[in-house]
Amino acid sequence: MDSTEVESDILRRVRTLLRELDGHHPACQCDRGMLRWTLHKKIDQNPSNSSVLVRILVKELERAERGDFRHYIIPLLHTLMYTLIKAPCISEELCGRVYDFCKKLLTLPKPFCTIGLDYATRLKVERTAPGTLYQRMVISEQSLKSDPYPYQEKIFIFADPELLSEAICNALLTDTEAAQVSQSPRACMCYVITHAMQAALGEGCDLGALKGRLQDMPTSEVEHWFQQVVVAVECAGSEGSTARGQHTARLEEICRALLSSSQAGNAPLGGLQDTPLPNPTISFHLWTEDNQLWKELVLFIRPLSQSCEPDCLSQDLDTFEIQDIVSDCECCEQTRFSVLSTDSGIERDLPVAVEEPLAPCGAETEQSRLHRRGGIKKKPSPLESVTFLQAGCCSPGVKPPVKLQKRSGVPQDAAAPVQKLHTARIVLLGDDRILGRLAQAYHSLRKRETRRVFLTPRLNLQFYYIPVVAGQPDTSAVVDHPSSGHEELCEVARYLGRADPWYESNINTLCHVIPKLATMPPSPSKHLVTDLFITDVIAYYVRMGLQPVCFQVYAVKIFFNDPAQEPAEDVFLTELCTQGQDGISHRELSMTKKKTTLDGPGIDLTVTYRKVMVSDREKELDMSLRSTGLVMKAIPSQEAEDLVCLNVTITEIIRTSNLSGRSFSAVANRLKTRNITIRSTEQRPFTVCLDKDSRRTYRNVISLEVSPCLEPSYCLQKTRTMKFSLHETEDVGLVKYMPKSLLLPINTFAGVTQ
């Protein structure tokens, strides 16, 4: 096709993408969610059309900004940036137009200004050193060793084998493993070199000769030239816009040195060519253990190859002792004996031999000038706790903390926070029940970090959610109440889809696509589709979905009818459901019938709650009623409603008398609250189920208390503050600037659009 036909075809595809955002779905339902993917794949087949697509997207963005089409802006901008990152070469003029548009978004409300600022910052570097965004993405995702850019990322996919069928789990495992087979570190380093050269030199780069020269090189030489290119690109990006010409000259010099004189210029230049963007490092996990998430994160920060003894680290993981992992490899020391200290405790009185530093047993062990063996392990220092508290203050929606005063006698560099070089992107596959497990694991992780800081100052933790619903392999995992349908099992996904249309278009459509692709009979075409589509969509989601939607985690304290049984404490994210111990069916509740007893079905309950009012003031109320059960939903049915609010529906039994005798009817009693207490006045037990998961069912319950779950770091600092100000009721000091409630952030493309 000529240039006019190409431009018309791309424009038609972009307009079709926008019509889907307006609710005009394609005629073929199998194309839902694939329009963006097919658009990018078409450009990958002909990289020279990247500039055409970027120019069209810029025009559509400017048109959407002028008109009343703000819901187009974020999808178009994500599509544009993803094209720009993968493009072999984009002119400075076109990159500048995108940069200027991103700056215009700073005048709009969130999330437009947030995303605009993020992309403007990236584009400023890309204009100076073309290829920087591609290079940084590959280095971090493939964990390539690079001193100028030492960041590492990894995607962890978690699926619950009791919620997804074996066929789906096996298909996802096969696809993720196949995506990593052809991605060696050597190949990824070659990709970085060729993309950087072509991005800076354009069509003047002899890419064929460059690829041939790199293919004939030993790996050590490839790594040498890779480091040369990375240093050149990173230095140019940090020097400012005036360094673009110098950057181009520097890469030309590296290219001439890399190519031999006999190879340079032997073949005509072939124009722009595609350099693949490798799939990110992905690991697939069947979530079978409660502490599995924490174990994988610890191994990501400190792999077995970097620890002193693999057996020691594995034993520490199994015994849940984070103190042994982050200590200076004390697990490798010999058996300790009680040693009587005879020194004065003054440093100058120690013999010279003692002052020599001991060899560390681990790669990350910190050198210390004095090392006394045989001592008792010290408690976590105050500096470690402050580091954790400062990290906790960086949560979304928290006021920036005041500058901490330096303590006398503490070196300034000792209190400096550890740089976060690792990013773990946790992708959950399933329905609301796996998100309930995530809330449990996240709460446990935060409590563990309160006791001993390890992951918080070193790791960026990002959560992603892809709804997957198929035929349930285990029917006992579904609770017998009205919310057991497929739609009710994906309340979080439906809320995110309403809040973010791009999430609805690209991610929610996978709900039934993944099971369909996983169960297709094996064929060459099927293998091609699953390898490209599922893996590519997951990669696109984690790369571009950086705006969190924060969900309140609720704490529940459960009391049992046996006085000897300790109360249970748990958390839930989406729903809490209670039901009479006898399990009365809904059909019986919907009919009025004559009863031989005075009380009728259900049990007597006392409900005490704080009513949520429009003025945000709280009013405490209580009531007594007879009920067969209740449902507390934490996910609102509309995105405009408050996320930090429980919608409680109590099935109340109303007794009426008529000529035929006494009858009973069920009435839905609804209320909104954040704190609620339910108590059985006649001590008759009932059951409690959390997050629609029958595996998390409590029986013989007579009372429960529900409230927003508090952030463990807030509780720790609050307790410390209360020790010194017993009569102080309000938050003072550092506590004022800390997140009070525990929020679970799930990333989408836009967050919540205002």
From TrEMBL:
GO terms for biological process: G protein-coupled receptor signaling pathway. It comes from the Eukaryota. InterPro entries: PIK3R5/6. It holds the Pfam family PI3K_1B_p101. GO terms for molecular function: 1-phosphatidylinositol-3-kinase regulator activity. GO terms for cellular component: phosphatidylinositol 3-kinase complex, class IB. PANTHER family: PHOSPHATIDYLINOSITOL 3-KINASE REGULATORY SUBUNIT, PHOSPHOINOSITIDE 3-KINASE REGULATORY SUBUNIT 6. This is Phosphoinositide 3-kinase regulatory subunit 6.
